[in-house]
Design a protein that fits this description.
77% helix, 0% strand
């Protein structure tokens, strides 16, 4: 495989995965990112990826995530979301605090036995508040080894599946033993107008849809969004080259995140429909690329303590979240939906809300998840450097 063919494969393979996910519901439930990761690791470990592609892989991994971050942030109306669901946002920030505290305890325990433990802690804090986009961007910002990234990603997805099943089928019953039920008459204490709820429902409906992406009305604005992202990436790259080598990727990631948030305040940028799906597609390119760099034998040797640490972080932070929510008066459904928005993403909020039989928590959950997108990078990077310096 020549470098040109490798680039074409990395760019086009996610399109095939998305098509198959659209055709076969079972694949859609697995998720395109997971399929890209598994496929890439299989190809790398059966000898299908030739030697000598390291340069191509490094370039793609270095530019894909910084390009995707602004595109996925552009649609965020931060002012609207922050004013929409007060108790949900309070619950979400409590969850983020719980996540950092439990990650710190785990770090103290495993820092001597897990390679790049502070980087994994930062990746988890970012990923469990701001989903895959933030997980990957912090991994690059901290210059984590590819094996570390894939092991941590695999461990988190493995544990997340069990967490999600628990929340969907047993969460209300078990957590309801500790937290009060949702008050449907008061809307859980969230003052949300019918107009706001309808607006959010409409936004969520097309949150990550690729329908009509090649139509003139969507394709041309999408190209404009990509052009803005390129400009942001160029600015971030300039800052990268004038920053100290140890922190240059951190500077790049924070720069593109901050500039993406700034652009989200511009209505014309925020209303570009295909910005988020395009960013999501670029993340899939990163997933398949980095997966083809991993030696599976090294992955198996390195994964034991990371899995235990992941269990501690996900379930431990959820338990601490519940404990803090009780005296504050946050209800059971709000706790579940805001933790879901953090650990997974806003896309999973309607799914879990449906299992809770409570559509009224959807808007609050979406608000929490959107804010998580905006702050995840900052929390993750700060956590990693603080743990390394002080714990």
């Amino acid at each position: 495989m020549t470098p040109i063919l490798a680039i074409l494969f990395y760019i086009t393979f996610p399109a095939l995965v998305l098509y198959l996910c659209h055709r076969f519901p079972v694949l859609e439930k697995l998720g395109a990112a997971l399929i890209c990761f598994v496929t890439g690791m299989v190809l790398a470990n059966i000898g299908a990826v030739p030697a000598g592609l390291g340069g191509v892989q490094k370039i793609i991994m270095s530019i894909s995530v910084p390009l995707a971050i602004p595109l996925m942030i552009f649609p965020t109306d931060i002012r609207r979301w922050t004013g929409m669901a007060g108790k949900s946002l309070l619950s979400f920030f409590i969850f983020a605090l719980s996540l950092i505290l439990v990650a710190a305890v785990g770090y103290v325990i495993y820092a001597g036995t897990i390679h790049e433990a502070h980087k994994i802690a930062g990746m988890y804090v970012a990923g469990f508040t701001g989903a895959t986009m933030n997980f990957m961007s912090v991994a690059l910002a901290l210059k984590a080894n590819p094996e570390t990234i894939v092991v941590a990603t695999a461990a988190s997805w493995f544990i997340e599946i069990f967490w999600l099943l628990f929340m969907m089928f047993l969460g209300q019953r078990v957590i309801g033993l500790f937290l009060k039920p949702f008050d449907f008459q008061k809307g859980g204490g969230q003052s949300i107008s019918d107009e706001a709820e309808a607006a959010c429902a409409g936004e969520d409906a097309g949150f990550d849809s690729y329908a009509g992406i090649f139509g003139r009305e969507k394709f041309i604005p999408m190209l404009a969004a990509f052009g803005i992202s390129l400009v942001i990436f160029a600015i971030g790259t300039g800052l990268y080259y004038i920053s100290p080598e140890e922190y240059n990727m951190t500077v790049l990631m924070l720069a593109v995140s901050t500039l993406g948030i700034c652009c989200s305040f511009l209505p014309r940028v925020r209303k570009i429909e295909m910005s988020y799906p395009l960013g999501q597609y670029i993340i899939l390119i990163f997933c398949i690329t980095i997966a083809t760099t991993v030696d599976f034998s090294e992955l198996l040797k390195a994964s034991g303590n990371i899995i235990v640490y992941t269990i501690l972080v996900i379930f431990g932070s959820t338990l601490l979240h519940i404990i803090i929510c009780r005296p504050i008066g946050i209800d059971r459904d709000t706790q579940i939906i805001t933790a879901t928005a953090g650990i997974f993403s806003p896309v999973f909020v309607p799914v879990v809300a449906s299992s809770l039989k409570n559509r009224e928590v959807i808007v609050g959950g979406l608000a929490a998840g959107i804010i998580g997108y905006a702050i995840g990078n900052y929390l993750g990077i700060t956590t990693a450097y603080f743990f390394k310096a002080w714990l």
